[in-house]
Amino acid sequence: MRAAESITIGGHRVGPGERPFVIAEMSGNHNGSLDRALEIVDAIAGSGAQAVKLQTYRADTITIDADGPAFRIRDDHGLWGGRNLYQLYEQAHTPWEWHEPLFARAREHGLVPFSSPFDPTAVELLESLDAPAYKVASAELVDLPLIRRMAATGRPLVISTGMATLAEIDDAVTAARSAGCSELVLLACTASYPADPSDANLQTIPALREAFGVPVGLSDHTYGIGVPVAAVALGACAIEKHVTLRRDDGGVDSDFSLEPAELAALCRETDVARRAVGPARFGPRESERDTLALRRSLWVVADVTAGEKVTSENVRSIRPAGGLHTDTISTVLGRQFTRDVARGTPLGWDLI
């Protein structure tokens, strides 16, 4: 197994042993308002997340305005049923002129701003803003020319792997490396919106790490924070989660997005999970020293005189430690005390 090396994104180390790198995805949750988008960035800054991510496209750079069956979302889709792709992306896109103020606001807060570009012109825009990394969306993993264009910038790549076969992931990683990318993170992902936890298959995380020798994280579309916390316990070093101000405000992705307090809980609890994972070990830890002293042992529980027999009434297994092992009770019962012993004395061989 190759070691999963750490990489650096915007000054943050991302990899095994590091605090999980939490990427707050705004997506279309700005609901068409720059003020709301800036407010989302402000809320992310107070959560403990390290990065805010946008999506950089226009409706006509990601699809075309067509209404054939292939361009329509199935009618019974829970969030976007009956709409065509152009309409959805027209509503959800982040206007390109918003990128500069959003990047600036994020940097004021010490956040790492980056984005998913969906065509080469989007890469050009993000390069003009000195984006510190690029995200490859799951559906774009098969667009190898686009991946090579991102990789040619020399920036780290974060690659989502939803829907992808192992061969397709290998093609994407090979394309990125061949074009100059030396630092990349793979994200396990279930590309359904929302996603069912039973489809998360989190054992994919160590499998990807072993297969490609790179840091691996999770792009998560389930409700809540349970799946990301479990992912960190399995070695995920980055978590991407959609964020909104209030789900009740609606929006294309609000249904499966976290509110700011929930994002803060995710940041806190994934770090708890990271710190809880460690090598198997047995025996007392230093932190258990006080409790170790409370282990049960044999104690004299009634005042006795020399020559008196040891009985179950004057010697018992109680807390704390300090007396003979509890399993010696059958050996000591019936023996005689060698001297007077006060109640509350640990039983030792010298007393009988």
TrEMBL record:
CDD domains: SAF_NeuB_like (cd11615). GO terms for molecular function: N-acylneuraminate-9-phosphate synthase activity. Residues 297-352 form the AFP-like domain. InterPro entries: AFP_Neu5c_C_sf (IPR036732), Aldolase_TIM (IPR013785), PseI-like (IPR051690), PseI/NeuA/B-like_N (IPR013132), Pseudaminic_synth_PseI (IPR020030), SAF (IPR013974), SAF_AFP_Neu5Ac (IPR006190), SAF_PseI/NeuA/NeuB (IPR057736). GO terms for biological process: carbohydrate biosynthetic process. Pfam families: NeuB, SAF. Coiled coil: none annotated. This is N-acetylneuraminate synthase. It comes from Pseudonocardia endophytica. The lineage of its organism: Bacteria, Bacillati, Actinomycetota, Actinomycetes, Pseudonocardiales.
